[in-house]
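STRUCTURE REQUEST FORM
Protein name: Glutathione S-transferase
Source organism: Bradyrhizobium archetypum
Requested output: structure tokens
Priority: standard
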Amino acid sequence: MPDLSAFPITKRWPAKYPDRLQLYSLPTPNGVKVSIMLEEIGLPYEVHLVDFGKDDQKTPEFLSLNPNGKIPAILDPDGPGGKPLPLFESGAILQYLADKTGKLLPADPARRYQTIQWLHFQMGGIGPMFGQVGFFHKFAGKEYEDKRPLERYVAESRRLLDVMETRLAGRQWTMDDEYTIADISMLGWVRNLIGFYGARDLVAFDTLKQVPAWLERGLARPAVQRGLDIPKRP
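Status: completed
Returned output:
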């Protein structure tokens, strides 16, 4: 049985199943990337809720695993060389899990790097820009009198959706007919933008054709449906 006692995070979130991958998360667009991935690949894992309402992400135990204080993070008892591996940043975790299991990342070197480029497109563009729309449209930023920040992030989010629209033309998924970590990285963010953030009309989502169809296909996947609700919110 693996011994995870050297990792301070296990003091606050004890592992009932230390032989399984430990997931520390919350069902946000970034958090569900990893829960969806784990459900898709069927790797046994144990999930721990990081409650933002209690500032769990700011505790010394969590910061010992992710000094950036963000979710998701994992602790894999069976990392490279059979040694435990702590890892944070959702994109890095997706790539790690794909490499570990040989799933959802093409083996062909060219297609592998093309998939990774779209993963970085999400990490560097879709996540930050859609998140800013959420802040300025739904949360505290909506009280700002100056609407130029909102207008900027709405315009940039629409531009990114147009990039996706062009890419998906004639394709089922980002990488043609192959569902990959690139799709997993984007599904929660697009869903959140038009749903929880309430920005469907702002970005004129219904004028798109390819992205809504892609989103519908993705959300219909049983693993995605399960992963979107893991871990349960308090």
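Reviewer notes: The chain has nine helices and four strands. The chain has two domains: 8-103, 109-221.
Form closed.
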